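Page 37, top half.
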Amino acid sequence: MIGYAMQKRLHHAFMMFLLALVLLVVLFPIYWMLLTGIKPKSELYLPEPTLWTNNPTLANVRSLFERTPFLIQMRNSVIVSTVTTTVTIVIGALAGYSLSRLRYPGRDFFASAIFFIYLIPGMMTLIPLYVLMSQLRLLNTLYVLMLCYLGFSTPFAIWVLKGYFTTIPYEMEDAALVDGCTRLEALYRVILPLAAPGLVACAIFAFTLSWNEYLLAMLFNNSRNLWTLPVGLAGLVYGDVFLWGEIMIGAFLMSLPVLVLYVLAQRFVVTGLTAGAVKG
């Protein structure tokens, strides 16, 4: 019995050590961004980097807001990411439900086509997208980013939700239909609560893709007031001069919404595993 207790304590200590090591690896970049962002200029370019500063300053924050329209660019990122995520979930849920629950000619073909569309490398679509958006006169607007990001996030959401809806028993939906629900009501009241983890996963994917994407946002918008945060932070590099203080504090502020989203989504995923499983 003593040997088993000692083995259990050693196993617990080893697991805690591994957890601490993982946390160190994950959190150190965030700590380094914040540290670099609050260091004075005199400490940023020392031959030997330091892991702490005795003279924290907000000068880099002030410089960031003076050099760039940071709040405007954050607003652009929030608008583009929120709209893209919302539309992705709506289209993904409706299309995924259609492909998994309804029977009609060409259903399997459409499902396969969506899957192969998702496999197309994004770099291959740059020139066609630019030509198309130019003809639609959508360049230098936020709409061009929303439409392009939907082209990448929607096929993923449809395919994931199609597979998730397929795992939900048909009997639960049939019971809702017998109780007088329409197809859309059954989808909203029964299917979506059970598919909450899949919905959250798709939402996180769509939001993160839209929030962090750089290349399309740089190519399709030329105005600084229409840039999103990744492009705005890249604009702090002047030739071979890197404004590390402004770049790092901007990157730290940019990462906060994503961190909050992941923290909130973890609890929602656990809740979604059992939501709607029983009636009444």
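Page 37, bottom half:
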Amino acid sequence: MQFNPHHLAALASVLRRGSFEFAASDLAVTPSAISQRIKALEDQVGAALILRGTPCTGTDAGLRLAKHAEDIGLLEAQLSRDLALEDTRGDVRLRIAVNADSLATWFVAAMAAVPDVLFDLVIDDQDHSADWLRRGEVSAAITSGGKPVTGCDSIALGSLRYVATASPDFKQRWFGEGVTAGALAKAPCLTFNAKDALQRNWIFEQLGQRISPPTHFLPSSQSFVDATRVGLGWGMNPEHLVRGPLRNARLVALIPNAPLDVPLTWQVSRIMAPSLEPVTQAVQKAAQRVLIET
């Protein structure tokens, strides 16, 4: 089945911008033209592609087709580079799944090194970002170490080092007699979201016990650090983000010299890997500045 590129562009723009009006502005056509293109594409596929609302969102089929449109743009951009042709289509778009802590510590530098790409980032835990690749909803992902996703190239990047940290007052209040199983079962900790297992993993690595401490849910890397500094709870913070507070003693390690190293991997669709080679190189270079060798 072949798809009209104008229809695909309309779909991708509606899902990216969230409305028919904004998509029309992006593509320099009328909202009516966008609506007609979407209807023609839905008739061709035989299924709804967009859930109308504020904002508009995609059905499973719509999301897959929108990614297909973006992949075509990446492949055409590579062909233009290979043939030394002038590329007049503008920047291409790339959807990537990345964990919040990588975004907060090193991934933005990789994005800045690839100026001709417009990034669409999906934020998810590194233990779950591979699921986006399996569903075909992204072209690449930062994942935790493990088995490569079928159909993807896998490149080890190094490990993001985490340190269990707390404010001095918090540590004295809750761990004055040491970091014990009993104290950890009572002291409030910070958790990014329900998928975040870093705190529990660190506890198991240090004590060999499965403990689920009381927790605040705080889905922001920088707010995670801020909340730790004001004594809201203890948490696993990327070492890169807390070097200053640790140096000036505004934060302290719960247990000295007891980090948790999380290996990260760059996985990219094998079909798209040649087109994404500049992105892959930028990711590797940026990761080398922050991640530690595993």
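Margin note: The mean pLDDT is 90.
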